[in-house]
Amino acid sequence: MPQIDRFKNRVVNIDFFAVEDFRALPDPDRLSLVFITSGKLNGILNERPISVAAPGILCLSEADELKVMEKLDVAAQSFRFHRDFLHSVKLSETQHYFPQTPSIQTGLALFRRDGSHTGVPRITEKAYPLLFEWFFILGTEVHAQSDARWACRIKKYLIQIFGLLEDLSHGSEQSPVDAALEYIHTHYSRKISLEELTKCAHLNRVTLNKLFQERCGTTAIGYLLSHRLKVAADLLTHTDMNLNDIARATGFEYDTYFIKQFTSKRGMTPTAYRVISRKFSNVQ
């Protein structure tokens, strides 16, 4: 059922199931993100066999067809949301909720069905604790509605979950650069030093930066900065989080440093970017 926002006069089309039994999946009206925390699920998704062992994620669209064949001690939870929830707020989350473009694009490929997207994205051992924490916060925010910005925070964590799953689906753990990239994608909200990345990749600074330059066109720390700014741009466009909160969520210790880096790399201040990104959507 949709959530009734007790702080504002609106309906928010999302829900969280702390215990998912798979009987009502896929949801015909919503996208579903299912987090399997223990056990193993075997089934058929769109006429193709799937097997999801914990920790695992199942991304289901409204048009998917899922038949569960076997559940082996499965424990799972799910977050379901209407596509309208991915749309940006009109001006402020403190006003009424008006779905409109632009919509969040990060992670939507996970719900498409083609040769590279099967509905079961890759999860690594390092990513699991972070996903578990973010899912826990999603469930808490949906049911507690702790303050007037609860829906805004849910968008923040959804963007982070999608971004991490999308990044993991593009890589593997076979090369030193992949190991460093995974570390960045799972820890970018915290302080990261070049020394940490060299230890993770088991390479010295010169070799790591050379490999990063060849693959990503920048150094390891340069990639870290660009990834942080990419997440920050999504949060600016799709939430009304203040600049200090966005800075902290993306690994910048001070909002002044975040503003300086964003302005330098994007050619405009974060505030200007927020205004332009939303105005641009209205002329599409």
TrEMBL record:
It holds the Pfam family HTH_18. Keywords: DNA-binding, Transcription, Transcription regulation. It comes from the Bacteria. Residues 178-276 form the HTH araC/xylS-type domain. PROSITE patterns: HTH_ARAC_FAMILY_1 (PS00041), HTH_ARAC_FAMILY_2 (PS01124). Coiled coil: none annotated. This is Helix-turn-helix domain-containing protein.
